[in-house]
Amino acid sequence: MLLNQPHPLETRVLTRRFEYPQKNPIWVDEFVAKQGYEGFRKALGMSPDEIIEEVKKSSLRGRGGAGFPTGLKWSFVDRKSSKPKYVVVNGDEGEPGTCKDRVLIEHDPHRLIEGCLICARAIGAERGWVYIRGEYRFHIDILDKAIAEAYERGYLGENILGSGMTFHLSTHTGAGSYECGEESALLESLEGKRGNPRLKPPFPATVGAFQCPTTVNNVETFCAVPDILLNGGDWYHALGTPKNGGTRMVCLSGHINNPGVYEVPLGFNMKRLIEEIGGGVWKGRKLKAVIPGGSSSPILTADEVDIPADYDSLAKAGSMLGSGATMVCDETTDMVKLLARVMKFYAHESCGWCIPCREGTAWLAKILARMDEGAGMTRDIDMIDQLATSMFGRTFCALGDAAAMPTMSIVRKFRNEFEAKIGSTEVFVPAPGTQPLVVL
Amino acid sequence: MAELVTLTIDGKQITAEKGTLVIEAAKKIGIEIPAFCYYEGYSLQAACRMCLVEVEKMPKLQPGCTLPAAEGMVVMTDSPKVVEARKSTLEFLLTNHPLDCPVCDKGGECELQDMVFRYGAGESRFTEIKHHANEKQWSPMVYYDPARCILCYRCIRVCDEGLGVGALGLTHRGVHAEITPSNGDHLECDECGMCIDICPVGALTSGSYRYKSRPWEMNHVGTICAHCSNGCKTTLSIRNGEIMRANNRDQSGINGEFLCAKGRFGYDFVHSEERLQTPLVRKDGELVEASWSEALALVAKKFGDVKAKGGKFGVVGSARTTNEEAYYLQKFARQGLGTANIDHRRSGDVASLLNALAGKRDALATVADLYTTKAALVIGSDLSQQHPLLAFQLRANYRHHGSSTYTVTRGPVREDSYAARSIRFEAGDEIGALDQLREDLSKHASVVILFGDSVKGGDVAKLVAFGDSLGVGVKYVCLMDYSNSRGAWDMGLTHEYGPGYEAAEQRGLSLPEMLAAKDLDVFWAVGANPLADAELGSNDAFVVVQELFLTETARRADVVLPAASAYEKNGTVTNTCGEVQRLKAGAKVMGVKTDLEIMGLLAKEMGLDLGIWTPEKVFEEIRRTVRGYNVQLPIIVTGGAAPTQPVSGQLAVLPDVSLVRSAEDTLFTSGSLGRYSKMLNAAMEAPGKLYKE
Description:
Chain A is an alpha/beta fold.
């Protein structure tokens, strides 16, 4: 149930059926009454290539964090393969600060189902799964009910709407691992294995779930598809900036007056986002920094946020749009504590597969916890930077990068705060919470 | 021919097949790309990040273990960026790795030590408290120290992919991640210890060796395992004559990286408290200790007397003594004692096979053939239990080359899991069951047929006829039980045949006939224990036994001569595939003599001229006189395996196939030797059963 009120500056596409205050999820009758499944009906009349072309035209990019062009991703699926093809929805939503997928499922579950159907039509899949993190029990129930409704009304199952198309969809529960948001780890987990990432290539488009061609997309990405089909790729594209089509969900959180989930066009200015939609920094304080795309995106200082929030502009600013989780830090924020907390998360979530991530995150977490306790040493500051640099780009999957990027940016941009945490003596004090090797 | 590409590694141009991994391509031109998790022949992990290399036009460092060589690729393995990355990877590895090298079993032969020595940084910046987890005992054989584990996943892969057991997995995550048995806290597996061998660090340690010695204190002697008939090379690590461990340190044998529980842990019978170390002579109904000279004189006198009065001898040889000993024994019996009553317990009908081959050359498969053949047919044997190396080879062939395996067995076997077809048969019906496979088998370019003791005599002829009818290249393996089961046949330890399957001049008594005879004057057992499950019919026979232990037969003896085990002697043995390999003496046990020396001394005492009794001289004679054994000496001397085929086609007499019976040992039993191995008996799986239920 949404905490925030809608804002007039929002561009409502994915959220256009939302009600404030919300009473119930939008079930099938209301959904159909409000143009529901019409995008899919239109897709039924199109060839797979036409659907993919339309999605390409929309310049929709993956909303999970990496921002890979969706149409291109679908076109990679080997449709000629004799194996079955699969649609997998990534609803793991593990990136700290991100809470958009749950809102979409909570309000408008059929939109996701429609998105899956269109994708299935485009890649020739007859089976799909929605992988949802285990903590979202409530949302799994909503989606399960919506799927049951869709089966009842003939939107799922065999001979859908008399078209001869078959598509089955079900939910699959994760068991609480950040790593399972990485698409290949998600597929391992879906197959019932330990959620370790896979070696790539091959990519899921050729060898995905159960060794079959698979497309994996974020919940928000699938949710954007019905309107693209309904109104055309060009229409969707025009909502955003030239290379960054459409709208996106922003999860505003942190030291801000109106935290919440908002839908804005790509390229919406980040400073305006914070000040106008978010109502500015709370308690009348000044802005210190913004984490623009989830905890793994490099931090931006207050001086750096007056930029359009789209994939390319943020990349230019040295950060990333990520999962749309925009976290605001006011002037009182302790950046060492913040980084220590972030690193505790990554050390906890590292799957342990590769050495730099497994050992690097744990080491950094220990140093940062110690610094935060006031027992930092001068050499620690450079070492934090060096360790993060050693991890960056050398790990098996992107989790290592996700831990390294905020570390490098925070320690470089807020070095003075780290210096202030240097203890009075340069004496080693063990980090709290660690067990002594030998208990006497 | 695969497409070739040319790439440059460290300035050197190399042409490689497209798709060759950069780490392998570099190896070919002598450039080492260090790695922990990469292990040839097993699935790729790219987990350790030690093999990162710089590649032109690629922004990030690339793992050499998964990067396929491509045309025009320029790889740098020692650029400053790569050197720095290796340093930092090792620094990361050492953060939580205990620096207990001075007491670690692996110290001195540890890949992590070597890597840090070559590529590591000079100092450590890690000053936090290390993450620690306690050591665990998984089984009597295997211990795991998670703190030392670097998580290269080799053990998981060798167990799952190599052995098909899958006893290991991974639990927890991040620095807490550790290897865990699939059963939770203990192993239920083959206890082969391959995980210990393949572990690059001291995380997996051997129950029989841990904390006993430093690697550099021991001499490492590569010899052939004393147990089953597969003929794996096992490396004995010897300190002051004592075997401290056996492992596969020297991977040069026909078994490559493979070694099972018997080869690795089953050596401990050598130093058993129950080893006989002094001759025993029966006085007043009791076996009492005697000197060698007294015992030998007594035996020589008795043998001489019985021979002089034309008495009746019964001589039983062993499937475990060397070729030289087997040859010398039959020579002693036939020439020295003038008796034709000589036999051993036979476990496979190789004579019928050689007879049925009818002039074919190269019709006997070697262990290496099992890795290259397109198809294999296993008849009547639980291969993974009875012939673990052959099973490993077939599985590796399936994994690497996609070969097809067909099983025709009485019960379910492990090979079923990847077999192209599995057929169950009622005892005695295996040849009939084969017809169903004719069409499948004839599709493959080459087939190896392995058959157990249930196929013998006329059935072997039918089997070879079936093989001929396939119209493709077929090779055979006659499966037998022990380390020299094949050699015992070849050397003429049977009442039908002399060495090289020449018909014996006079057909003597078979083993059961000797046991049943009421009028034996002398019963002489060399390394055999026929009275384990039988009675000696002749009450008055003078029984001489050469044995390691006081077995049932030795207890009935009038003179017991303590013999050396295979690990204490030189010589050659022939495995079930007919490959001759060299035994090298490693261990020393006080008071014992090799069977060859005992026989030689007896011959001397009796004044017989049977030739010099050193293994080298006897082997020379074997090469000269035994058909098929004129093998190239350099192969044997350098520790290789030389295939033999003593004869192909019509034998003058057919073997007595009623005597062919396998002891049906499992992975944890090994005839009388197994009874004295504490490790094998300690395995929770022991004695186990053939065929899964």
